[in-house]
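Teaching note: in complex prediction, the entire set of molecules is handled at once rather than each chain in isolation. The prompt given to students was simply: 'Predict the structure of this complex.' The entities are:
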Amino acid sequence: GAVVSQHPSRVICKSGTSVKIECRSLDFQATTMFWYRQFPKQSLMLMATSNEGSKATYEQGVEKDKFLINHASLTLSTLTVTSAHPEDSSFYICSARSMTSEYYNEQFFGPGTRLTVL
Amino acid sequence: AQSVAQPEDQVNVAEGNPLTVKCTYSVSGNPYLFWYVQYPNRGLQFLLKYITGDNLVKGSYGFEAEFNKSQTSFHLKKPSALVSDSALYFCAVRDQTGANNLFFGTGTRLTVIP
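The expected output is the structure of the full assembly:
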């Protein structure tokens, strides 16, 4: 149990286009989901925290108009990278916090999405 | 404020030898500490956590970690390393305020040499 999926796993796009990444909690409900960004050989950087049905809270330095986050249901959050540029190329990882009794308040991570902007 | 330090970028160990990956933390209040492992192009996999109780925590794949309050450390250990343990390891501390976010260390790359 407690599986988080991400789609797509890899995406290559042209500069100026927008890319949507989906994050789903497959077997549990998650009122809170997190989006991280990871540069090569570096740690995870928290980009934003999203709560179901409300606006995401962005970390300092993260452009909310560029990285649009939607958390429309208890099992789905999406990250849209708008007008992507090569510097947005990175590994994006989502995480979902479980509210079920078995894994209460535990945080589970998706497998990540490799974005390459040409 | 919460923070985690992993002083070693790289740890090399021979297969069959014991391994240690170091982590120190700084928190206000009681620490919630975690270890995660990341394989290439994959997300993070949970290894173990310390919330309260015994200082020695046992986790997945034969790993364990020792919580040391006086030294503010939470080192990851394994008695006998396997080549398949080669990966990137992250120590993390949970923010006890606000959104309960996880704050990660910079990671330690473990290489087990056959």
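Point out the following to students. Chain B touches chain A at residues 36, 41-46, 90, 99-107, 109 (CB under 8 Å). The longest strand of chain B covers residues 87-94.
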